[in-house]
Amino acid sequence: MKLPDPIQRTVDALAELPSIGPRQAIRLAFHLISRGKEDIRTLAGAIDDLARIKICDRCFFAHQNSGARCGICEDKNRAQNSIMIVEKETDLLTIENTGKFNGRYLVLGSISKTGILDDSQKLRIQNLKNAIQKELHGQAIQPGSGQAEEIIIAFNPTSAGDFNASILAKDLAPFAKKISRLGRGLPTGGEVEFADDETLGSAIERRS
Amino acid sequence: MKLPDPIQRTVDALAELPSIGPRQAIRLAFHLISRGKEDIRTLAGAIDDLARIKICDRCFFAHQNSGARCGICEDKNRAQNSIMIVEKETDLLTIENTGKFNGRYLVLGSISKTGILDDSQKLRIQNLKNAIQKELHGQAIQPGSGQAEEIIIAFNPTSAGDFNASILAKDLAPFAKKISRLGRGLPTGGEVEFADDETLGSAIERRS
Q1: Does B45 touch chain A (CB under 8 A)?
Q2: Where are the domains of chain A?
Q3: Which residue out of A8, A50, A107 would a mutagenesis test of the B interface target, given it has the greatest number of B Cβ atoms within 10 Å?
Q4: B94 touches A at CB < 8 Å
Q5: Looking at the predicted structure, is the pLDDT value of residue B142 above 80?
Q6: Are residues A105 and A92 in contact, defined by beta-carbon separation less than 8 angstroms?
Q7: What is the pLDDT of residue A143?
Q8: What residues contact residue B95 under an 8 Å CB cut-off, 6+ apart?
Q9: CB distance from B10 to chain A under 8 Å?
Q10: pLDDT greater than 90 at residue B104
Q11: Chain B touched by A43 (CB under 8 Å)
């Protein structure tokens, strides 16, 4: 059965989003219709406004400042020589919510299992290297050979994350005094009895 | 961390949709931003156009005809005296895709476990009763006492569906010669070995 055109177009556009299948897209479209015109226009207007969002030219996080940089990169109170590399914007948000990190970020985009970065990711890493050399040459012997205090590679603690992190750590070694990853062990609130071997192994090795 | 306003508004609006949580809403918003302005505007435009969708005044399905009725209700080749009551528009679509039903529909909206219809659902049932009495009095002794040939209550084969269907069947008994439900048994492609007791029991009782 042919759906009315506005429904079909909404379904097609929604179904292209990650984790929304064609069936859920149809349900969402009909749900929106049942909510009425006002809710439809609220959502459409909010999404349309996303087109006004800019991407920071240094860390690639979203912002809507008048300049080219996001609030974190503009913040003079944040350590400029400590850089955390995250995959996704949502990883950045979760880390910011802890309040435990006062450096800046690089949003790299989702990594693949192959360990090979795509073109946009290579560009972002190159951008980071250039910025480090240009901005952080305080102790450098030659101009253009600056180093960050620390680069934290905050990929997920999965085999793909480990693999990519080890490649990236080698690549970035000349650009930071220290390259680290997020600590591993038992999650707070977890139970020893139900921890998997890998997690418990890490927790024993990194006991403190 | 405060999100830029257009992102926050999109997240809020998306998170109100069924089966989309706040976390997924954030991911979707950032994904849309990464897809670029054109994709953002395509989705926003399609959703905005949903406001132009009308609801059929007889079966309550979505349409965009110039009149008040949907294509199925307008179709003279469909049996007007055979009415299938479905919960959701998506149920109607799935049934239409089988090509096995040539009557018309009533979209009732999702039923609750209590067996009590909400006000809008009561109105839809009353609307159906009125239409049957008004339109289908071919064989009726008195004017205003018309009957449908068949009303099929196509609720899910769950305890809530069974409960609601039994109440509705009693309520609608004077308005149709026959009131039926969808057949039960083994799903095509299923395996006897793995069928649950209820399903297998139905399949044995309704063997053919």
Answers
A1: yes
A2: 5-52, 65-181
A3: A50
A4: no
A5: no
A6: yes
A7: 54
A8: B84, B86, B101, B154
A9: yes
A10: yes
A11: yes
E strand or H helix at B107? strand B104-107
- Contacts of residue B1, defined as CB under 8 A and 6 or more positions apart, other chains included, come to A93, A96, A97
Residue B82: name the closest of B154, B141, B29 by CA: B154
Quote the pLDDT of residue B167.
97
Size of interface A-B (CB pairs under 8 A): 157
Task: Kindly indicate whether the ipTM for this predicted assembly is greater than 0.90, answering yes or no.
Answer: no
Among the CATH numbers 1.10.8.420, 3.40.50.2020, 1.10.10.1100, 3.40.50.920, which is that of A5-52? Answer: 1.10.8.420
Q: In one letter, which amino acid is A5?
A: D
DSSP-based three-state secondary structure for B148: strand
CB contact under 8 A, A96 and B1: yes
Q: Which residue has the higher pLDDT, B145 or A115?
A: A115
Question: Could you tell me the pTM of the whole model?
Answer: 0.81
- pLDDT score of A139: 53
CB-nearest to A90 from B30, B42, B55 is B30
> What's residue A9's pLDDT?
96
Q: B62 and A33 in contact by Cβ < 8 A?
A: yes
pLDDT of residue A55: 95
Do the Cβ atoms of A7 and B90 come within 8 Å? Answer: no
Q: For residue A21, which amino acid is it?
A: G
CATH class of B55-181: alpha beta
Q: Which helix or strand (DSSP H or E) is residue A35 part of?
A: helix A22-35
The CATH code for residues A65-181 is 3.40.1360.10
How confident is residue B139, by pLDDT bands cut at 50, 70 and 90? Answer: low
